[in-house]
Amino acid sequence: MNFVKTTDYDAMSRKAAHIIASQVILKPDCVLGLATGSTPIGAYAELTRMYEAGDLDFSRVHTANLDEYVGLSHDHDQSYHYFMNLHLFSKVGLTADQVNLPDGTAKDAKAECIRYDQTIRALGGVDLQLLGLGHNGHIGFNEPADDFPAGTHLVDLTESTIQANSRLFEKKEDVPRQALTMGIQTIMSAKKILVVVSGADKAPIVKEAFFGPITPRVPASILQLHPDVTIVGDAAAFSQTDL
Questions:
Q1: Which residues of 167-195 are buried (b: 16+ CB within 10 A; e: fewer)?
Q2: d(CA 72, CA 146)
Q3: Which of 42, 69, 129, 216 could connect to 33 by a Cys-Cys bridge, CB 3.0–4.6 Å?
Q4: Does a structural domain hold residue 54?
Q5: How many folded domains does the chain comprise?
Q6: 63-99 confidence digits (pLDDT tens)
């Protein structure tokens, strides 16, 4: 694992964006695995800045997002379709036929999960997968469990994840209780993985996930087995390590 320690959130965002930009420049038709949540927003803003400056071309890029809530329409302001369009897709010229997300409105969740994994395989797999890190160690919506789930699947969100996401909704009761998410095997199949972490509140799970035992009770710990993982974090996120 390659650890990159930065001074603060803005520096972390710039570094992460430059890693993603390098992937696009080296392979213009690459497949980017993308994540939502507050942590990647700064990186998306920096990618937008590079695009607007004429330094980055997304015209041949395809994307595959990690996850989506079940039951939210694509235009719901808390759906991940909406989030990605707001923070990246519409800013860098990515069109509907270039982007891929699980469909949380699908009537048959199992069939949708199969379709999504087939879509990723048809794209040739993910070249660079961007991940955030949940306080309980979840990546995507792969929550602590007794084993590592393989492919894209339907998941019941834990109370801690629902609580963490409730800040984005008017009421906690409005937070969806289920999501569709890439599985651990799908994530681990990416050629490269980039994890972004920020803030002292993430310091305990950074230490547990990346310096502790590998266990499905801490899903992100499986990343220790991937051959090409870069973790970019600010000083606060790494404050409980020796980095």
A1: eeeeeeeebbeebbbbbbebbbbbbbbbb
A2: 28
A3: 129
A4: yes
A5: 1
A6: 999 999 999 999 999 999 999 999 999 999 999 999 9
Which residue out of 65, 85, 100, 136 is catalytically annotated?
Answer: 136
* CATH of residue 126: 3.40.50.1360
Would you call 29 a catalytic residue per the annotation?
Answer: no
Query: In this structure, is residue 236 part of a structural domain?
Result: no
Q: Among 138, 142, 153, 234, which one carries the catalytic annotation?
A: 138
Query: Would you say 193 and 230 are in contact if contact means Cβ atoms under 8 Å apart?
Result: yes
pLDDT digits (tens, 9 = 90+) for 94-110: 999 999 999 999 999 99
CA max distance for the chain: 48
Q: Which of 67, 68, 127, 234 is catalytic?
A: 67
On whether residue 197 sits in a domain, the answer given is no
Is residue 143 among the annotated active site residues?
A: yes
- Mean pLDDT, the chain, integer: 95
Q: How far apart are CA 193 and CA 175, in angstroms?
A: 28
**pLDDT tens, residue by residue, 207-236:** 999 999 999 999 999 999 999 999 999 999
Domain of 140 in residue numbering reads as 7-183
Is 85 labeled as catalytic in the residue annotation? no
Clarify whether 142 is annotated catalytic: no
Over range 140-163, report the average pLDDT: 91
Single pTM value for the model = 0.94
Choose, from 127, 143, 208, 234, the residue flagged as catalytic. 143
For residues 130 and 63, the answer to whether their CB atoms sit within 8 Å is: no
Dist. CA 103–CA 124, nearest whole Å: 20
